């Protein structure tokens, strides 16, 4: 599995669709897998939702609840679910070598899907036009997608999810080393008050904060046509670790904005030492916008946590360096997190934590500066099998990393200096 797709909340159930190869653990035969959860913690996998064909691979996209049946695809019993996804046309297709946006819909709560006979619904005659994220807006439906190689986000609108008109183009800006993918655009209150700002999220295939792929975001304004970042905003990293990519948010969650990312990195995802499965998602995270001590709105991420995950909280006083070490029951395969509130750095050392030799691109030590703060540094560390997630400064900084120890990491030790 890789990118999360079609995140949507319907009738008390969270739906996670995702890029998957239904025929193997290597990338290929791209299709939409499907899993559901009542609580974002316990997931049940279902049959493949949108399967590849000889002429079409099913790349990333999104799902919306068409409450007003603007598409006309509902059956009168409940609002249809409408998926917009990228058709990657293979050799043998009349559109071979291009990518365009197609539509499918469901009238049984997302369990079965029908492709729209008029697909694609949006085509630019481009080889790298992909990853539509659609949301409802007072002006109609809005889509953000990418021209990946141009490092641009393109915005469209529609009255019915079928016919689309171009609004504007954003970028390049911020990190442009890798191709741009998997955008998202949403509005959030600032500090929980009446003022709001818009957040544009975009992932990139290379040039991430720890090497390889990563995800950046911009804060600004959306005036119904154009996204404009705040003055001086050239982007921030959504996660400073090596293993958090393609994060997008759920549709239809009301006032909550919940995101999930792919917990891996394109630099070595195909070579991780997991022969019977490949890749997983991050924990779901509720996000909010809060002003930093310097006055700029910054995304904070708060994980949705079950009680049975190993987790530890610590507060590092100003000027103090604390080290947290995770090991197996036998004290093997140490994973070492150092929070230096004097040097304003956070470091994760996974160089001795199990298998690190499977790829020369697998960074064994990850270091990042701590963002603006007042005083102490609060840290939450969560271990979910082979994924470790670090949340510092109430989620203003997150760091996600895979580890492959010989046994579960179950023991915690903390030293302060």
UniProtKB/TrEMBL annotation:
The record, for InterPro entries, names: ConA-like_dom_sf (IPR013320), Glyco_hydro_32 (IPR001362), Glyco_hydro_32_C (IPR013189), Glyco_hydro_32_N (IPR013148), Glyco_hydro_beta-prop_sf (IPR023296)
Glycosyl hydrolase family 32 C-terminal domain sequence ranges: 333-411
* Glycosyl hydrolase family 32 N-terminal domain ranges (all copies): 1-291
Biological process, per Gene Ontology: sucrose catabolic process
Gene3D superfamilies in the cross-refs: Exo-inulinase, domain 1 (2.60.120.560), Glycosyl hydrolase domain, family 43 (2.115.10.20)
One matching Pfam family: Glyco_hydro_32C
What is the name listed in the Swiss-Prot or TrEMBL entry for this protein?
A: Glycoside hydrolase family 32 protein
Q: What organism is recorded for this protein?
A: Ornithinimicrobium pratense
